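Marked as duplicate of an earlier ticket. Keeping the data here for the record.
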Amino acid sequence: MEDLPEALLAEIVLRITSTSDLNSLSLVSKRLYIIDSSQRSAIRIGCGSFPAREALASLCSRFPNLSKVEIDYARWTSGHGNQLDNKDLLVISSQCPSLTELTLSFCSDINDSGLPYLAYCKNLIYLRLNSVPEITSSGLLSVAVSCKSLSGLLFIACEKIGSVEWLEYLGWNGILEELVVKNCKGISQYDLLQFGPGWMKLRKFDFEMKGGFWGGHSYEEGGFDPLYNVHKPSRSDIWCESLKDLRLACFKTETEVGLRFLLGKCKSLERLRLEYVHGLNDNDIIVLSESCRNIKSISLWLTPTRYDGFRTAFTDNSLKALALNCSMLEAVELTFAGCEHTYPSEIGFTQKGLVVLIQSCPIRVLVLNGTNFFDDEGMMTLSSATLLETLELVDCREVTDAGLCFIARTPCLINLTLRHCKRVTDVGVAELIHSQKLESLIIECCRRVSEKAVLGSGRSVQYSVETASPGELKRIYPMFPG
């Protein structure tokens, strides 16, 4: 190894991604130690770094070209010693001139007084704050003013972030391309409208209200108007021409504009996830399908409420609109929570509507979770889906061995996942084995399928009699404390 050229050694080290492997490699020789020190671009500091300040200073000194620093104190206890604090942010900003990404998670000793030090990070592009309880809007404003290269912000469970001066400033300066706000009780969907012209440049937006599945929902809440159309005439002059990735989760819109306006303003949208957003109706999806014709992936997580009756928000009219207008749609996920198996009408979609979508779009990935209207007849339709490569069925109680026999004939199917499918047995799995098409098979908590039956059914096989509960898989687990 000592005879290898420096450039070749550097290339070898560059291809190693495991931190533990890099640490071991650097102990082999002085040359490798020096190369690793000059090339290491990322470090993570957590509860195991003690004493914390000395560990940080040593790492920053050893690795002068760090571009990514993560400080994570998840599961921290007083027995781990002191956490890093505001002064340590000064150490990072002064000793890491190449820093582009900084992540602070569960850092209870860092507050607004430390954030101005980030002004020294001239190349800082992305700041992530996860459960940093002492950061407020004032600290964020200082970051917005001083970090001129900032293009991405992520906030999760930052309880003291409230007023939106920082958001208005970033909006008018138009520098953000990615904004993620989750479980921050001081930031509402209406506050985010203050982002103003900043929406024009944003490429990814993710908003989830605090409270999860139950955050803005009650089965007994007042009804929504299924014919109400907030988009016609448009009540918002905000446009999102660059937005490609949109996720909205766990809040209620009723007849207010709020963030639902985005569904009619994102002409470049490619990926959409709507997770338990209450108050939407078919008009929102129809407008989306007409204005976002480049969409490639859509994920709808729905639960019934009082519309015209008791059902989920969207009907086959939404599926037909997507089938008619979205010719590039490749991935579809439908998840239904709180829908009684014995009352299929609680889901606004029907198997006929889903079949129209599958037959009209080049679907390659299909995920159905709690889709109690989908049965073996639907599986027969999938057998002729010429582009379908990946199928995941969760809590689909009407699918039986006959359905597995049908999809064994699907021309391009190579990845199959079955979870909580109670009527599937070894007989159906035997058909999959006989087809010899699958590269990956995952079977979890299908109690009538044995481990012996899945052997040889795919190049990669994962079998378990246990898995997350249907409630956990549908992210309604806060209903079950502890």
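See parent ticket for discussion. The two ends are 54 Å apart (CA to CA).
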